[in-house]
Amino acid sequence: MSSVYQINKGIGRPIEFRGLKAQYIGFLAGGLVGLLLLFAALYICGLNLYICITVIGGLGTALFMTVIRMSHKYGEYGLLKKNAKRSIPSALVSRSRKLFTHLNISVCQNR
């Protein structure tokens, strides 16, 4: 008897939710939790409810627009690549030969 297997066509593809890819879903979730905590802090401090809602609404809109723009601009790994490229030094400076005199030369000769 032959078996029929269904193939999951999403294997190896990045997680995507309504246009947001990979880590941007986490960024948005973290931002929303931060906005919730900010709303609670503003309300507990005694700020007017309508002012709290206006501030959080504006910040929430800015958060959504920024995360969606970054998701479309950089894609799944682009933001990670940008941050990694920024941490690469422009030049390596060695002021002494001490580092090179202690290298094991026998490893290079075996090749």
TrEMBL record:
<keyword id="KW-0472">Membrane</keyword>
<dbReference type="InterPro" id="IPR025407">
    <property type="entry name" value="DUF4133"/>
</dbReference>
<protein>
    <submittedName>
        <fullName>DUF4133 domain-containing protein</fullName>
    </submittedName>
</protein>
<keyword id="KW-0812">Transmembrane</keyword>
<keyword id="KW-1133">Transmembrane helix</keyword>
<dbReference type="Pfam" id="PF13571">
    <property type="entry name" value="DUF4133"/>
</dbReference>
<feature type="transmembrane region" description="Helical">
    <location>
        <begin position="47"/>
        <end position="68"/>
    </location>
</feature>
<feature type="transmembrane region" description="Helical">
    <location>
        <begin position="21"/>
        <end position="41"/>
    </location>
</feature>
